[in-house]
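Anyone up for a design puzzle?
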């Protein structure tokens, strides 16, 4: 019988451009047909819904009793201040805090503009977007604000947080509950492509791209999501144990995917005509070249059939393939 191949997991680092630490791309190779979508969708949904983070859930401002009250000390009304605070990005060191506790951040600032950099946070917390404008003050007014934050996951409405305030803070007066987005994720994209189309046995390659808000590394996000799924699958451990050792005996040949994808097209030993045509189309690396279907080569100016076949052969010689149609 055809045996399952043991998949490999690799991080792709693009050297031709400055990649910030909050964006990363990962590749899982040699997956059986259908498993790219199965694994990719599960990871994407888990990352979007279940990665915990820190966020404000309530605030209190000296002289303010509720969110619809007029506030003469700022140019913004309370609703606008709340909307600004919802954009606050906080990094947390889980080793220095108790994830089950509620923490208080404070602002005691006199000046024209109050920003996130004016927030005083306990040890273990760091404000990422310190230039975020929270309020513009009127005259020499002073902002005295307490921001209540918690460690959780998902999105909580202000109605849910209003209940939480009563339960956790004992229904203290003058506390305004706000919406909370605890997710540290900006976006997650998955792409499934055939590794060896046209052959008798087609494998899939899963590409996972993760962008965070900058308060957690993408590598930790993927590891966290994998651990969540693994713990859910442990629910099936009580069923009959099946030994799959013999079904996963084929090994995958190690491929230098990072170096191949980072390779400049100048190193493909193409003709001058082919190389110039690709550069004119804005293609400078192998990854940029294969991140498109092979049919797209026809649309590149000054690239004839001979040059097209030359490029395809060069990519195949590297053990790579173009994106599926």
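Challenge accepted. My sequence:
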């Amino acid at each position: 019988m055809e045996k399952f191949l043991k998949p490999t997991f690799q991080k792709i680092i693009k050297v031709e451009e400055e990649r910030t630490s909050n964006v990363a791309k990962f590749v899982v190779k040699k997956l059986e047909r259908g498993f790219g979508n199965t694994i990719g969708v599960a990871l994407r949904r888990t990352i979007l819904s279940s990665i915990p983070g820190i966020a404000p859930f309530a605030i209190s401002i000296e002289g303010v009793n509720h969110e619809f009250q007029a506030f003469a000390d700022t140019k913004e009304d309370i609703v606008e201040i709340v909307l600004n605070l919802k954009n606050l990005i906080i990094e947390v060191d889980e080793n220095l805090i108790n994830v089950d506790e509620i923490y208080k951040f404070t602002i005691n600032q006199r000046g024209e503009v109050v920003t996130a950099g004016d927030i005083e946070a306990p040890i273990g917390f760091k404000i990422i977007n310190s230039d975020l404008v929270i309020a513009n003050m009127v005259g020499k007014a002073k902002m005295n604000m307490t921001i209540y934050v918690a460690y959780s996951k998902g999105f909580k409405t202000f109605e849910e947080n209003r209940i939480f305030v009563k339960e956790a803070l004992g229904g203290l007066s003058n506390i305004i509950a706000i919406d909370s987005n605890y997710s540290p994720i900006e976006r997650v994209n998955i792409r499934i492509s055939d590794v060896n189309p046209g052959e008798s046995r087609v494998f899939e390659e899963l590409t996972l791209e993760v962008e965070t808000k900058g308060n957690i590394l993408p590598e930790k996000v993927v590891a966290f999501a994998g651990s969540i799924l693994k713990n859910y699958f442990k629910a099936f451990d009580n069923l009959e144990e099946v030994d799959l050792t013999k079904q996963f005996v084929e090994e995958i040949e190690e491929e230098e995917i990072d170096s191949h994808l980072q390779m400049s097209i100048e190193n493909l030993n193409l003709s001058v005509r082919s190389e110039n045509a690709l550069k004119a189309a804005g293609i400078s690396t192998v990854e940029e070249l294969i991140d498109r279907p092979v049919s797209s080569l026809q649309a590149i100016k000054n690239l004839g059939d001979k040059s097209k076949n030359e490029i395809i052969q060069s990519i195949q010689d590297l053990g790579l393939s173009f994106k599926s149609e």
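A detail worth pointing out: The domain at 255-325 is CATH 1.10.150.20 (DNA polymerase; domain 1).
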